[in-house]
Description:
By secondary structure, the chain is mostly helical. The chain has three domains: 1-54, no CATH class; 70-116, no CATH class; 119-177, no CATH class. Helix content is 78%, strand content 3%. The chain has ten helices and two strands; from the N terminus they run E-E-H-H-H-H-H-H-H-H-H-H. It has a two-stranded antiparallel ribbon with strand order 1-2. A hairpin with a 6-residue loop joins strand 1 and strand 2 (12-14). Helix 5 packs across helix 6 (103-116). It is elongated and about 90 Å long. The model has no long low-confidence stretch (mean pLDDT 91).
Amino acid sequence: METKICKKCGEVKEVELFPKGRNACRECRKKYLNDFYRNNLDSAYQNAKSWRLENPEKRKEIQKKYRENNKEKIHLNDKIYRKSTIGYKKRIINQRICYLRNPVKKRQQKKIWRLNNPEKVKETNRKIIDLLSDGYVISKLKRQTGLPISIIKQYPKLIKAKRLIIQNSRTIKTLTK
């Protein structure tokens, strides 16, 4: 078993612990690179950015390999992030910003998606109706009273009362069947 002396830490280590052609062990090299990166963040960011712009295909390939090798890890992290309030709020904010920037395009995309996924649309609508969400109850009130949504939203007790009426009428229907 061959050994070598690290020029940074001065310890005697096995040759396998040294990168090829280097006189510093992997641990010392890692510390050096981390320190260098922290001390030169601007140039590191610029180098990384320029590499990404010059090598888009290679970057895609690297990302694809990473995603394939770490599917479970990515899925778990996404799930945790989506459930966190920060992740949820960011997603909603980004969706709204995107919609405000491209309202016509977003409406067209939504329309196409609804046409291509009628089962999912029906399922979502069924859930909204079954759960008696505020949006569903408000839309019922708007249709029945002709009041604008902004006014209806100012009266949460009205929404709650309408929800109770709908629940009662559903209960009566199930009992009479």
